[in-house]
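Dear Dr. H.,

I hope your travels went smoothly. While you were away I took the liberty of generating a structure for the chain from your last submission, since the lab meeting agenda had it listed for discussion. I wanted you to have the full record in hand beforehand rather than looking at slides cold. The sequence, exactly as received, is reproduced here:
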Amino acid sequence: MENRQNPERPDLRALFFGFSSVGLSGFGGVLPFARRMLVEERRWMSAEEFNTQLGLCQFLPGPNVVNLAVLVGKRYQGVLGAIVAPVGLLAGPFAIVLLLALLYDRYGNLQQAQSMLRGIAAVGCGLLFAMAWRMGAALKDKVVFLPFAALTVAAIAGLRWPMPWVMLGGLALSGGVAYWRLGRK
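The corresponding predicted structure, in token form, is as follows:
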């Protein structure tokens, strides 16, 4: 996983401001902005690395983007980077949310405020769909991964199985398939 497209290691300042730009880019979901910054703009990760690391971050407890910031910060600047990157990601939005809470408390019942919030939610859904589409396009062996996605959706949404059990079963099954595929090479 060391075949990054950009050979330069980002310093603490670059990590802070890179993730600050991500944190300030979205409202309610910044994963598409994180992908754009990490893969397309700064080239700190390849598309395949991003998918792999995001998969790990989704398995870990906590917000996926914060986990990703910790992981990228640690990768490039050790423990200090693992602190600086998520602080950069969260500092601006934290200040904005405090300000918005004050404004919402005062003006939240206005129809214009309610309409604005519905519009922002629609944009967030569109950005999430676009990011999922791009991530899917980056998968090399899509045919191998499609059954796992279908089984996961069926198990959680259809059969209502508990997510931890589905994750453990998926981990065992996908690990077995990966072991089998790697053994053939």
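Two observations you may find useful: The chain has a mean pLDDT of 87. The longest helix spans residues 64-107.

With kind regards,
E. W.
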